[in-house]
Amino acid sequence: MLAVLLSAAIQKRLLDRKFAIPIIALCILLIVIKWQSFIGRLFIWKICLENTGQYWFSGTGSNTFNYWYSNWQHDYFLAHPGWTHFHKLADCPSHPYNEFLNIFVEYGIIGLAVLLAAFVLPAIKWRQSVRDWQLAVHAGLMTFFVFSMVYDPFTSFLARFVFAVHIGVLLVPRQQVLRLCWLILFVVLGYTTVSKEMARSKANTDWETGELLSITDPAQAEVFFNKAEPVLFRNRFFAESHSRNLLSLDTNQALRYLYLNIHLNQYQSHMMIAGVYQLKNIRPVAVKHFTEAHYIIPNRFIPMYHLYLLAKDAKDSSQAEYWRKKVRNTPVKIPSKQIEYIKLQMGL
Questions:
Q1: What is the sign, positive or negative, of the torsion defined by CA atoms of 317, 323, 327, 328?
Q2: Least confident among 9-13, 136-140, 211-215
């Protein structure tokens, strides 16, 4: 809504002080309505800023937010066991919900400065735009800017390409040589985008085929998963499917995959590893990994339920009661039949 309003204002040349007042009022209203979500996102900033000390200049590396933030949030909850505002947090610890924070964590102050410059430099000259298409491009950049404040659009290669085209259209100089350079860059980026999308499409087809075959022929399914692996290895859902198929073939190989794949969602990884050791009746290791999963996302009921069942099977009444109280005292963010079932089984 905010992006549409600002984009329309730019195209109609209405972005002045009078228009700024209702925009600010709308922002405040949205914060008030989604107050818990707002606090939860500030909490993500707090944890990131506390842990990026040694990475502030050049960042942790490309596509590493998922891995590092999961560990940071886990360590924070381990150090603050009395923190009770879990219901304000998002259930998925793999998204920063802000592109500027994502860029700062992965590329440091250098990457953040480049991204801000990409937004600020074209914005300085938007009032000098005399053609409708120029205003439309500025409006598109404003949409990117607003979207970046509430999510991380540049994790998509296609979004990065579209953004680069917007910048290039506005800043391309008049000199013929530099125009030619920009044209070459545009063609290269376009070819790369199309080829990546085609490769991703084929990999997704292999993934779907592997999932279907995993029910009847896990060995053949592994062939298709391995074909898709080079393209989709950063996709945590693909990693989950692949590791589940590996479990039916070779438990040790599956565990090795789960331990080493830093792009797999850490919560899912610990849950799956714990499940393997639970099946093997190696209770201490299963408890360890279920507990790790609990500290990554403390408001998830499934790890607590498994820990309760393990304690109950071991006839450890004190631990069973501890996890029973945890479930009872954890606020329900989104009611579901799964949570109702868990509470029913625990007599709550």
A1: positive
A2: 9-13
Distance CA 278, CA 281 (A): 5
Written as one string, the DSSP assignment of 57-94 is TT-S-TT-HHHHHHHHHHHHHHH-TT---GGGS-S-TT
Given the structure tokens 């439309």, which residue do they identify? 136
Please name the residue that has the structure tokens 């393990």: 310
Please give the radius of gyration of the chain, using alpha carbons only, rounded to the nearest integer: 24
Report the distance separating Cα 268 and Cα 238, nearest Å.
12
Residue 196 burial (CB count, 10 A): 14
Find the angle CA(206)-CA(209)-CA(212) to the nearest 5 degrees: 150
Residue pair 240/272 in contact (Cβ under 8 Å)? The answer is yes
Q: How many CB atoms lie within 10 A of CB 297?
A: 23
Please report which residue ranges of the chain form alpha helices under DSSP H: 2-11, 17-33, 35-51, 65-79, 99-124, 132-150, 157-171, 176-216, 218-232, 236-249, 251-260, 266-279, 283-296, 301-313, 317-329, 337-345
**Model confidence over 136-152: pLDDT tens digits?**
777 777 777 877 877 77
Nearest CA-CA partner of 162 in 172, 174, 153, 151? 153
Query: For residue range 317-327, what is the model confidence (pLDDT) as tens digits?
Result: 889 889 988 88
- The answer to whether the CB of 311 falls within 8 A of the CB of 320 is yes
Confidence band, pLDDT 50/70/90 cuts, at residue 307? very high
**Which residues 6+ apart lie within 8 Å of 34 measured at CB?**
none
State the burial class of residue 317 (Cβ atoms within 10 Å of its Cβ: 0-12, 13-18, 19+): exposed
Separation between Cα atoms, residue 223 and residue 170, nearest integer Å: 46
- Residue 1's SS3 state is coil
Cα(247)–Cα(225) distance, rounded to whole angstroms?
13
d(CA 263, CA 249): 22
Rounded to an integer, what distance in angstroms lies between the CA atom of residue 297 and that of residue 91?
Answer: 7
Q: Could you tell me which of 260, 344, 269 has the C-alpha nearest to residue 308?
A: 344
Q: Cα(209)–Cα(228) distance, rounded to whole angstroms?
A: 10
